[in-house]
Specification:
Order of helices and strands of chain B: EEEEEEEEEEE
Distance between the termini of chain A: 34 Å
Strand content of chain A: over 45%
Number of helices of chain B: 0
Radius of gyration of chain A: 13 Å
Strand content of chain B: over 45%
Largest sheet of chain A: 7 strands, mixed
Number of strands of chain A: 11
Structural class of chain B: mainly beta
Number of helices of chain A: 0
Helix content of chain A: under 10%
Helix content of chain B: under 10%
Structural class of chain A: mainly beta
Oligomer: heterodimer
Chain lengths: 111, 122
């Protein structure tokens, strides 16, 4: 199975300031088609996960442009350009290259 | 707009069979562009993909190795829903269980149900 490792575990943030979360996979998620098969999800308190970014850098419909995904191969980053209060929650990366789909352990973002 | 509505018991005893149903509205369980999946979440195991069912020329299922001997995911075309059965549960199966829609081409979960907390305790 592909292991996904996120850091940090917890991330205190200040509204208006940028924030960054890292995710590393145990094997390359880059396919020959040029896509990196990693998604990012946000789980707000008391809610189900919601999709933010897919194939490494594509923003899902309705996701604000302050969220961006980057990276390739085994190292990926989710960046929030200017954190807002509504961005608190737990962020997960997930590899979608192969089954079993596997998730990172999560990064808790709090103001 | 797709909606997924889960139902099933929240409290179980060890060795019993966990049964959850996910009713689909706004899409068809037989759609060939998506898969219907189960994911669980617990403090000890985090988010864990359990398996999926999908129709692509025929019905297919994929299961996580960790539960493969105990799990069954079935579509029900007459009711436009799909189900999860997990046999011989133990306290380690205590978790919030989610059903979710997976898009094959885009490789993401775009819709999730509200989740069901299942507690296994004697």
């Amino acid at each position: 199975d592909i292991v996904m490792t996120q850091s940090p575990l917890s991330l205190p943030v200040t509204p208006g300031e940028p924030a960054s979360i890292s995710c590393r996979s145990s094997q390359s998620l880059l396919q020959s088609n040029g896509y990196n098969y990693v998604d990012w999800y946000l789980q707000k308190p008391g809610q189900s996960p919601q999709l933010l970014i897919y194939t490494g850098s594509s923003r899902a419909s309705g996701v604000p442009d302050r969220f961006s995904g980057s990276g390739s191969g085994t190292d990926f980053t989710l960046e929030i350009s200017r954190v807002e209060a509504e961005d608190v929650g737990v962020y997960f990366c997930m590899q979608t290259l192969q089954t079993p789909l596997t998730f990172g352990g999560g990064t808790k973002v709090e103001i | 707009h797709v909606q997924l509505q889960q139902s099933g018991p929240g409290l179980m005893k060890p060795s019993q069979t966990l049964s959850l149903t996910c009713a689909i509205s706004g899409d068809s369980v037989s759609s060939n562009s998506v898969a219907w999946s189960w994911v669980r979440q617990s403090p000890s195991r985090g988010l864990e993909w359990l398996g999926r069912t999908y129709y692509m020329s025929k019905w297919n299922t994929d299961y996580a190795v960790s539960v493969k001997s105990r799990i069954t995911i079935n579509p029900d075309t007459s009711k436009n829903q799909f189900s999860l059965q997990l046999n011989s549960v133990t306290p380690e199966d205590t978790a919030v269980y989610y059903c979710a829609r997976w898009r094959h081409l885009e490789h993401y979960f775009d819709y999730w149900a509200q989740g069901t907390l299942v507690t296994v305790s004697s």
